[in-house]
Write a structure and sequence with these properties.
Helices cover 24% and strands 32% of the residues. With 243 residues, the chain is an alpha+beta fold. Bound molecules: biotin.
């Protein structure tokens, strides 16, 4: 029997949907609340960031959670970091021998390859946090190389991973609401891929910036130090590290 999810999470389990983010938005319109989890074994139209496709075969984990981002709308992007450290902690507990890193803005890496992607969208009055974990299949790499849990020796099933993530999300979400962004930022930076090293950022308008990854500011913007000494705050984009 499947164990239940911790408070405040309540599960809607489905065989197949277009996108769990879209299903969670529809649920929100019908009155679903903070803590609603929509999990589907497969997605027919899984979405990644910037409209990219998210390949969603059976055996991988695809789910979305409705979350209350609090009174201050400006703090909503901080939820991406709350989510990332929760997923990292859950995977680290499931596969203690592996090393997981967070990658700005919403990925988790293992052995330098992407294993988790996350997508935050609006589902008024909530935020919908969509999480995809490659468990049984690592889709063909497009933008980034990929890896899945089976390739690092884990036999965890999708529900085990979902429940583990919810355990850690319950803890980190409550801490964020109570203590603010500082402990979240510190936990994220402790395992940040590429920190203090060279990086390339590709911004939404297509501009490319080269520099050193100097960390996060107090709001969660990525800091990039250019070689001419200028420091840039980056709020959205893709980042790449030399291989
Ligand atoms: C990315 O890395 O570009 C984000 C990927 C987000 C994928 C998840 S899978 C569950 C949820 N439903 C979607 O359609 N997308 C997210």
């Amino acid at each position: 029997m499947m164990r239940s999810l911790p408070d405040p999470f309540r599960l809607i389990a489905l065989e197949q949907v277009d996108s769990t983010n879209d299903e969670a938005k529809r649920a929100a319109l019908e009155g679903a609340r903070h803590g609603t989890v929509v999990w589907a074994k497969t997605q027919t139209a899984g979405r990644g960031r910037r409209g990219r496709e998210w390949v969603s075969p059976e055996g991988n984990l695809h789910f979305s959670v409705l979350l209350d981002s609090g009174e201050d709308i400006a703090k909503t992007p901080q939820l991406a970091f709350v989510a990332a450290i929760s997923v990292r902690d859950a995977l680290a507990a499931l596969v203690p021998a592996a090393v997981f890193q967070v990658k700005w803005p919403n990925d988790i890496l293992c052995q330098g390859r992407k294993i988790v992607g996350m997508l935050l969208e609006q589902a008024p009055p909530w935020i919908v946090l969509g999480i995809g974990v490659d468990i049984a299949h690592a889709p063909d790499p497009s933008l980034y190389p990929t890896i899945c849990l089976r390739q690092i020796g884990s036999g965890a099933e999708p529900f085990d991973v979902l429940a583990g993530i919810c355990d850690h999300l319950a803890i980190w979400y409550a801490k964020w609401r109570q203590d603010g962004f500082a402990p979240v930022r510190q936990a994220w930076l402790a395992d940040a891929a590429g920190l203090n090293g060279p990086m390339t950022a590709r911004l939404a308008d297509g501009t490319t910036l080269e520099g050193r990854f100097a960390g996060l500011d107090a709001e969660g913007a990525l800091l990039l130090d250019k070689s001419d000494g200028e420091r840039r705050r980056i709020l959205a984009g893709d980042i790449f590290f030399p291989r």
